[in-house]
Amino acid sequence: MKSKVVAAMALAAAALAGSAHAAYGPEAGQPTSAPGGYSQVVTSRTVGEDGARLRGRSLGVRVQVRVARGSFDAPVQLRVLRPKRRALTVAVRAVGRVLAGVGVAASRPSGRAVNRLPATIRVLLRVADLPPDALVLRYDAKRGRYVKVAFRARRDGTIVVRSRRPVALVVVDPR
Fold first, then answer.
1. Using only C-alpha atoms, what is the Rg of the chain?
2. Which of 48, 57, 106, 136 could bond to 151 as cystine, CB 3.0-4.6 Å?
3. Does residue 33 carry a pLDDT above 90?
4. Residue-level pLDDT at 1
């Protein structure tokens, strides 16, 4: 009897692990597939019609993801991800020194990846001592590399990036 219980528990654990992998595994177009190890979840929230703000810290900088009210007509789970500094440094070393990095992944509550968001999200990164020639790069899965992205920098060092897709971002000092 005891062996049947243990076997049933092992089977249930394996099924649970498989479903968790399906929901959170690296999906093409998601930040988890980008070089830099975007894997540690900083914060997560399911966002619907009411919109939301997700806040956290990634590589020592404050991060905020904003979704306006009425933007999403169906629930989407957003996850703010922290990359591994060493892996990210290696991935963009030809461009410059890493100042900040963050990823935003998206999925339906069922776990299915969302590669195109229903509306634009804003990703804000507060970078202390932001150099005037700083670059923001986004991982482009189709090209297999990081590319420059348009951004707005505020006087207080906050970088604002708008996106309709999950993103893997890195702020670089090109000097």
1. 18
2. 136
3. no
4. 53
Q: Report the relative pairing of strands 135-140 and 76-82 from DSSP bridges.
A: unpaired
CA dist., res. 74 & res. 16, Å (int) = 25
Domains and CATH numbers, the chain: 26-173 (2.60.220.30)
Listed in sequence order, the residues at least 6 apart from 66 whose beta carbon sits closer than 8 Å to its beta carbon are 51, 52, 53, 121, 122, 124
Cα(36)–Cα(89) distance, rounded to whole angstroms?
7
Q: Render pLDDT for 60-114 as a digit per residue (tens, 0 to 9).
A: 899 999 999 999 999 999 999 999 999 999 999 999 999 999 999 999 989 899 9
Q: Is the pTM of this model over 0.70?
A: yes
CA neighbor of 130 nearest in space, from 86, 87, 88, 100: 100
